[in-house]
Amino acid sequence: MDAATIFRPYQNDRAMKTILIPVDFQPAAGKVLHYIEKVFKDQLIRVELLYVLTSSEKMTKEDVQKSYSDFEHKYLEGTILPHHFTVVEGKLLDQIQNKIDELRPSLVAIGLSGNSLVKSLLKLVRCPLLMIPGATESSAIRNIVYANDFQNIKVSSAFEPLWDFAKSNGARIHIVHVTKGATVPRDEEEDSLEYYLENVDHEYASIKSDDFVGAINNYATEKKIDLLTLLLRDHGNNALPSRGKFVQELLTRTRLPILTLV
Description:
This protein has eight helices and eleven strands. It has helices at residues 27-39, 61-75, 92-103, 118-124, 160-169, 190-197, 212-222, 243-253, and strands at 3-7, 17-22, 45-53, 83-89, 107-112, 129-133, 143-147, 172-179, 202-208, 227-231, 258-261. It has an eleven-stranded mixed beta sheet, with helices on both faces.
């Protein structure tokens, strides 16, 4: 694999978290950078920007570097974000996964003008994924919904990104369960949740509805939610088969960013 890189110096690398952002130099990618800078303004982070040059593209590496220079001038000039840009050749999803395996990022963030990549990324990416629709209007995070399905998880550390977002922004977490039945089932996740949320402002809510996405979306509107989160667990045998469908449907019915936990 041949790669070209552009470096911007990092400071205190060991204390920093890495956020991987696949870019295509479109405005949606620029919006992600502005969102990340505002949301993580009080944290030490470094941003890894990745462009995958596929075999179907007519661009040369020189063309890509020129496009990146224009993109950097437009969206990164004056930024305090330490950043590093890499160009690799190959299949898009394969190279994203390779970079995840190499960097072990705390978060992958993508800007969406559509949701064509979502289904594939949800199956592939085994780290938290932040999806920011192009229609997102604000980067302020005051209220976060965690859509709770009351199922067991493998490790409580899956909730760490949720804790990070809440603590960094002084946000309130709304732990929302949508049930079709008249009674609320036992919450198998509560101990793990409380471990991470002990010092975070949070509340529980239960909604009876046959429409999961509609109920979450209505709650988000009513409570002025700024970020939706849900747990994908391991994307494998333990994941609900329709979870990716929920995410895609939420993206089509809301302007809010969605954070998936693993």
